[in-house]
Amino acid sequence: MFHRVTLIGRVGQDPQMRYTPDGTPVTSFSVATTTTISKANRPDAPAGWKESYNGKNWELTTWFRVTCWRKLAEAVNQYLAKGAQVFVEGELKGEAVDGSQNPRIWQGNDGEHRASFEVTASTV
Questions:
Q1: Which residue, of 18, 64, 69, 93, is most buried by count of CB atoms within 10 Å of its CB?
Q2: What is the pLDDT of residue 101?
Q3: What stretch of H or E contains 17?
Q4: Distance between CA 116 and CA 124 in Å, rounded?
């Protein structure tokens, strides 16, 4: 079972390319997507949302870890960089500790809970 996803966001770190033992290129990078709600429509912050840099909106950022294989891995490694806007289509995979298709959840240094999703890209 798989879930097809489409993401538009910003690259969170420069892509990292490596090779499997048989020489297949694999590139990984993170993508941040942000959803906003106007404070005019919602004066109180929804749980987990933060104030935007301009103070007019509430924002929620979701991080995705993206993996690319073969020729796509090589192209992504060559052309993407931290901060670039990116479009990704692919398969959403869970990476929970229990092996389920749920996201990996952990507590950050600031005490807030975080979650990440893994996407195997078919298009970038």
A1: 64
A2: 62
A3: strand 16-19
A4: 19
